[in-house]
Amino acid sequence: MTSWILSRPESLTEIEQLRLKAVLANCSELDALTGHVRSFAQMLTERQGERLTEWLNAVRQDDLPSLHTLAAGIDRDRDAVIAGLTLPWNSGVVEGHVNRIKMLKRQMSGRAGFTLLRRRVLLAT
């Protein structure tokens, strides 16, 4: 079910589409959740951060406590979320380097001092 909801509708097989439609017809909460998830995915992939306020209002109108928690979290840092949904820049490259350095640090744990770790980080590009 989760993968059906998170997938683009056109990428599902005909059988999967029919099964998902049957499940959603029998569960109004799941149907509402699917609509909100797909709407958020569209905002994310098409960089439509200006629609965030509208999306948050729609989420709050439905009785879905887990999405209300998500909406509250987004509200705490709304400007950053809108920027993330709108602007083409991200910190993915930096996060990749941080992840690589942490992995090297874990590999070297207890084996050598800072000097060797520093050398390994600088040479491992």
Describe this structure in a few short sentences.
With 125 residues, the protein is mainly alpha-helical. Helix content is 75%, strand content 0%. Helix 2 crosses helix 3 and helix 3 packs antiparallel against helix 4 (52-61).
What can you see in these coordinates?
The chain is mainly α and 125 residues long. It folds into two domains: 2-86, no CATH class; 92-123, no CATH class. It contains eight helices and no strands. It has helices at 2-6, 14-26, 28-45, 52-61, 65-76, 78-86, 92-108, 114-123. Helix 2 packs across helix 3 (28-45). The longest helix has 18 residues, at 28-45. The protein is elongated and about 60 Å long. The two termini are 40 Å apart.
Straight-line distance between termini: 40 Å
Q: Which sequence of SSEs, written as H and E, runs from N to C?
A: HHHHHHHH
- State the low-pLDDT regions, or none: none
- Total number of helices: 8
Apparent shape: elongated
Query: Which structural class is indicated by helix and strand composition?
Result: mainly alpha
Mean pLDDT: 92
**What is the CA-atom radius of gyration, in angstroms?**
21 Å
Number of strands: 0
Q: β content, as a range?
A: under 5%
Kindly give the count of domains. Answer: 2
Biggest beta sheet summary: none
**Into which percent range does the helicity of residues fall?**
over 70%
Write the layout of secondary structure elements.
Layout: H1 2-6, H2 14-26, H3 28-45, H4 52-61, H5 65-76, H6 78-86, H7 92-108, H8 114-123
Helix pairs in contact: 2-3, 3-4
